[in-house]
Amino acid sequence: MTTDDQHPGTPSTAPPARRRRRRRRRAFVAGGLALTLTLGGATAWALDRYVVEHVEIADVAAYEASQATDSGTQGAPSGTSAGSSSETGATADASTSSDGTSVSVRQVVEGSGDDTVTYYVADVVLGEATDLRSAFAQNAFGENITEKTSDIAAGNDALLAINGDYYGFRSTGIVIRNGVVYRDEGAREGLAFYRDGTVEVYDETTTTAQELVDAGVWNTLSFGPALLDGGDVLDGIADVEVDTNVGNHSIQGEQPRTAVGVIGENHLVFVVVDGRSTGYSRGVTMTGLAEIMQDLGATTAYNLDGGGSSTMYYDGELVNDPLGRGAERGTSDILYVGE
């Protein structure tokens, strides 16, 4: 008897074509289930990695106070608070000075039409190197903890503030803030601010956070790349990738940017370039940012987190126009000079 003569309802003797269809159907269902599970796992992973707050230190102010040294400089911000003057126009300028620390802020507009670039320059002369401080979003340390630059600044009585390196987006890098070690996972080219006013680019993988603190480091930043060395634009910065996480594969192209530069002892310059806003500011390339810092007289300069995070705050107000929408994106940390 051939298979064609067998009862069609018997599973073990169903026609080959029908059996193949059933196998395909079962394979499709199994594959769909596996895909659902995979996507579910990926979604959970992504939420945990990029969204869910992971708090390691819930009260940074108390933690820093507990780590204070006998020098008395930690936990006691000093900065500037005096009269201010300003003028309106395309190069609006404001300045404040007190106790040896001075801050001046101005807007610079270059080009026209679609080629317009608008950026903000804060020229800072510190009375003491430790007048430059750092603060974390929500007064907490960990991953994915964010707050607007202006809110962090206001909460710390800042006169001037810029976004930092967004340390909370990653789990690597050496993080020393206000003389206190928070993370010791050297991974890239960092920037170190010393208590004596020295600022230098260094290789995180060749040292430890404690060695840096012992050498007098007050703050570190972990983003990059370095833009200038001895006043010269560094080679290769147009090809640098800082992070290779989902959605953040490259920092190239014309983008909003934030950078810090060194002009002299305790003399710094902060720059925030707006971008992605036709007719107002297109943004700049990494090389373009380096050239801005060079033109301002910086000898050393370092790139910080950019894009929607690029923000400058001064005297109680948001100075720049992030992405041309006037809306800040949350970040994990700031550099600031207190009132």
UniProtKB/TrEMBL annotation:
<keyword id="KW-0472">Membrane</keyword>
<keyword id="KW-0378">Hydrolase</keyword>
<keyword id="KW-1133">Transmembrane helix</keyword>
<keyword id="KW-0812">Transmembrane</keyword>
<feature type="compositionally biased region" description="Low complexity">
    <location>
        <begin position="71"/>
        <end position="104"/>
    </location>
</feature>
<dbReference type="GO" id="GO:0016798">
    <property type="term" value="F:hydrolase activity, acting on glycosyl bonds"/>
</dbReference>
<feature type="domain" description="Phosphodiester glycosidase">
    <location>
        <begin position="157"/>
        <end position="337"/>
    </location>
</feature>
<feature type="transmembrane region" description="Helical">
    <location>
        <begin position="27"/>
        <end position="47"/>
    </location>
</feature>
<dbReference type="InterPro" id="IPR006311">
    <property type="entry name" value="TAT_signal"/>
</dbReference>
<dbReference type="InterPro" id="IPR018711">
    <property type="entry name" value="NAGPA"/>
</dbReference>
<keyword id="KW-0326">Glycosidase</keyword>
<dbReference type="Pfam" id="PF09992">
    <property type="entry name" value="NAGPA"/>
</dbReference>
<protein>
    <submittedName>
        <fullName>Phosphodiester glycosidase family protein</fullName>
    </submittedName>
</protein>
<feature type="region of interest" description="Disordered">
    <location>
        <begin position="1"/>
        <end position="24"/>
    </location>
</feature>
<feature type="region of interest" description="Disordered">
    <location>
        <begin position="67"/>
        <end position="104"/>
    </location>
</feature>
